[in-house]
Amino acid sequence: MSELNTKTVLQSRMECFTKWIAPDPDKKKEIFAKADEIRQYIKQTAEENGLTVKSMPIAGSSAKGNGLRRHYRGHSEVDGWDIDIPIVVKMDEQADLLNSLLDKFEQYAIKSYPNTTIEKTKSSVKLHFSKKGSFDLVPMLATEKSDEQILVRRDGERIATSVQKHNEFIKGRTKKSRAIDGVVKFNQCIQLLKWWKEFQADNSYYLGYNDITKIDNVPPSILIDLLCALAFDKLGVQETYAETMAKWCGYLAHIIRNRVPVFFPDYYATPDITKVVVWTVLDPVNPENNIVKKWDSTKVNELADWFENARDNWNRIIHFNEDGDDGKALEILTELFGNPFKNHCGDE
Q1: pLDDT, tens digit, for every residue of 207-242?
Q2: Are strands 282-283 and 286-290 parallel, antiparallel or unpaired?
Q3: Beta 117-120 vs 125-129: how paired, if at all?
Q4: Is the C-alpha dihedral spanning 107, 148, 234, 295 positive or negative?
Q5: Domain residue ranges of the chain, discontinuous segments joined by +
Q6: What are the helix (H) ranges across 49-179?
Q7: Which DSSP state fits 229?
Q8: What is the pTM assigned to this prediction?
Q9: In whole angstroms, how far apart are CA 253 and each of 201, 303, 336?
Q10: At 128, which helix (H) or strand (E)?
């Protein structure tokens, strides 16, 4: 039995908060219905423009089951329920057509939703709805295999990928975790670290969102997914959330600080990691796609700082819990997860 038994105030707070940060179940039906509507409208517009839509697979956190609640109160913003909508199309091999894929879908979005705020990102067209969250149209090219696609980015880069395999990468570990006795589960740990990431980025110098330049350097969700998968594969989960977070953050701090290459054997053999880059985190379905290939040392070092600080804070939280100082523990938990923690951890 762990010294941090599951009946402590700390564990109770963590269980309550973990349930709260999950997407609001009362809004799930409404959000999914909106996503279906968008798929229908965009598909119709694309086909009217001469494209052939091959498939529209479910993707992102909604498919993996690790999305977050959308929270916009008290200067503590988390844009949860950011739904990915891949649109896989068949196209002629014309370079000008391929390179304009995002532009085309931006026009489809404007035509379908003329009164909606629309933003073009690196590889998607984002539709912002004030009450229903954000939806990312992700145009992709079909391949000869139904479970493989090509992502075409804004700069023309093409990346081989698989929506279905990415989903299974996470869902397989979620299934394995559910078979383990105890309340702490892999997917909930992803949600905790995604929420934590949002509040780290708010005070980050290199890994935040620049309001002036509009450049978004916040670590992408896929990076958090992969780091959590690495920690789960190596360490599993502990009996309590605090122990799990302390061990995971300590392990990941070591991996990042020492630039240990991250890759997985799920879909390919040991990859070539000899390319000269600052750090390597390989896409689990494409060994040629290094998620952090454009990161410099300042960004990697700041991410290591994040995890080292989190490791130290979780160990302090555990110490205060053992001493019965729940107030001090709550202060640090609020530093990690923002003001929403103290408002939604079950304390009266």
Answers
A1: 988 777 777 889 999 999 999 999 999 999 999 999
A2: antiparallel
A3: antiparallel
A4: negative
A5: 9-22+165-343, 25-161
A6: 60-64, 95-99, 101-112, 163-178
A7: H
A8: 0.91
A9: 17, 8, 16
A10: strand 125-129
